[in-house]
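Why do we care about 3D structure at all? Because function follows from shape, and shape follows, mostly, from sequence. That is the central idea of this module. The next example makes it concrete: a single protein chain, its amino acid sequence, and then its structure expressed as tokens.
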Amino acid sequence: MPRLRREPKKPRERKPPRKLIHRLVENDLIRRVSYPEYTRRVRQVYDGPQGAMLAAFSLLSLHTPLGDRLLRTRQFDLRGAKSILDVGSGAGQILRRLVKYADADAAITGIDISHRMLRRARRRVRPGPEFVTADLTRLPFADDSFDCVTCGYVLEHLPDARAGLAELARVMAPGAKMLLLTTEDNFPGACTSRVWRCRTYNRQELLRTSEELGLVWMKELWYTRMHRALRAGGICVQIEKAGKK
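And the structure:
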């Protein structure tokens, strides 16, 4: 009898290995406890002294002035956006720049899971934005509510990026754009994880997840040429929701 021909097995997709030093440095709290418990502990971090010093940390690390330049030079262009959502407003680091560089008639909303962080943002960003206490995985907004979103260093506080990205895709109108910044799985990212109890993301895995949800990476952004050359500064991308406005 002729032998049956077996179909070759498809190779399993392997996750990119993380270097041992990264695994040792990176905080693994998010993998050890339930999401509600993790959220409670992260809220404690941001409600406490670290949260109070967040604005100063952002200034010292140059994230504030370099982030300002991304918007000031229109690398991420806010012009024309009429409804803007800032996710994880924190102490208002990005929110202040949205008020400064967005069109005068743009409606801006800032959300954060921490009541105290929103109070700090209110003190630093006046007047203009609406403030809402909310969890990224359960946004209290209707579908297609925003034509522009900024999400700065928030996604890394989710065990799985898909839950947050799917919710962002839901509230973004077709054709809306998003500035996404998140912590990358390299040594600087691992150090950030240790300080803020967050996880890190692999760039290619995050790209695939985004595209599966209809969120297209239009371009990667870098704070400076040196950041580009060294692949430093974390993941910073402009994303667009598929579909026409």
